[in-house]
Design brief:
This protein is of the alpha/beta class. The protein has helices spanning about 30-45, 90-100, 115-120, 150-160, 160-170, 175-180, 195-210, 210-225, 230-245, 250-260, and strands at about 5-10, 15-20, 50-55, 105-110, 115, 125-130, 135, 175, 185-190. Pfam families: ECH_1.
Amino acid sequence: MEFQEIIYDLSDGIATITLNRPDKLNAFTGRMMHEVIAALDMTDADDNVKVVIFTGAGRAFCAGADLSSGGETFAKGGSDVQTKQGVPRDGGGLVSLRIFESLKPVIGVINGPAVGVGVTMTLPMDFRLASDTAKFGFVFAKRGIVPEACSSYFLPRLVGISQATEWVFTGRVFPASEALAGGLVRSVHAADDLMAAARAIAREIADNTAPVSVSLSRKMLWHMLGASHPMEAHRADSRGIQERGKSADSKEGVVSFLEKRAAVYPDKVSSGLPNIFPGWTEPEFS
């Protein structure tokens, strides 16, 4: 796919996906949805990618849905993707689900306003860093709609139900300091320092860890948010330890530690991840 509304860059193991409609504050469109999903397909398939960073061009991260259609903006139900029954799929939800399924860690670099889908799409990212000029808003009730992009699942799990309901029910736009206090973002940085701080975390992951182990760990942590009992985690942990314990990565991890040298992990994410969730299937939309 030729990218028109995002910029894709890969440098030294870190892929950066930049929402790129700066004159529109990177307002979310159907094309942007498809391009983000295509870019994540690329990062999953490329073993040179160790970490993915999302950010926005210009002074905003994403100001929400493109409202240029006026009062008919939300009338068609969300996107050009439909179920077999003809129900329109929420476009923000398709992006959130794709981020959730990413095989690589995802870091949100919130460089400016992140409102509506501009904030909800960041919730399945593994963590978010914000500029001190960033603003956030779950403004759906002020637009006569409801939260989307799977945020009714992710937001309470990230910040707790009380904080989630306050932000959603009021629809207010709030500063980065409140996002930090509420647990929405990991840290707040001066604008000039923001990307460097995010890349430092990405480098720590890319330079020191086994990509297959990180990918499996990501799946384990996110999937277990919905587990009904710790036994589900115990089963996945046990299968994961068995599979990874006999891998070339495990041998290299131990030997490199004993030899006091940097590890060079041979296993590739693209070669396939062991199935440590037997019987688990992705729910269908109906």
